[in-house]
């Protein structure tokens, strides 16, 4: 049984996300075929999607220009899982609070960019996450945060730091303000892709 995972490869930690989902899949005795998404036509064949960090305006611009944005919305409408991290969370939000970002509207939240400061204010914190038994070593780099007043009724807050939601889930979409791929801990990828019924499987014997 193998999972075909697409990583939006515009910017960000593409190889780190690929490694994390392969580790998570391995713990479930499954393989993970990773596809880098830079053009349309690839998303429909993916079972799961990852949207890494980077610059949210650049990411959203490419998704719109290439027609990948519509494919991602169709992916979610079909109940297939997505993990959006840092800038990926901004792009996935309903309101990016920035007219330069064409947000996808996958999460009924508004997001504040650089909520915890600039690059020099980056930090790691032991984060309590719903669904995980032990704290997760969350790495925050120019991290956004969800506006707590904006969280929609269908959105579940999985974790908060300093009173601000930093991990949320709505249907098959999980968004984090931090970078789970920058540690050897793959539990966030496991939570997003293997701990919910929405995660399908691909039979490589066919």
Summarize the structure.
The protein has 206 residues and is α/β, with parallel strands linked by helices. It has helices at residues 14-27, 56-66, 68-77, 87-92, 187-193, and strands spanning 2-8, 31-37, 48-51, 82-85, 93-95, 107-112, 123-127, 136-140, 145-146, 156-161, 164-170, 173-176.
Descriptive overview:
- With 206 residues, this protein is α/β, with parallel strands linked by helices.
- The protein has one domain: 3-Layer(aba) Sandwich (Rossmann fold).
- 23% of the residues lie in helices and 29% in strands.
- The longest helix has 14 residues, at 14-27.
Short key terms for the protein model shown above:
single chain, 206 residues, alpha/beta, Rossmann fold, seven-stranded mixed sheet, three-stranded mixed sheet
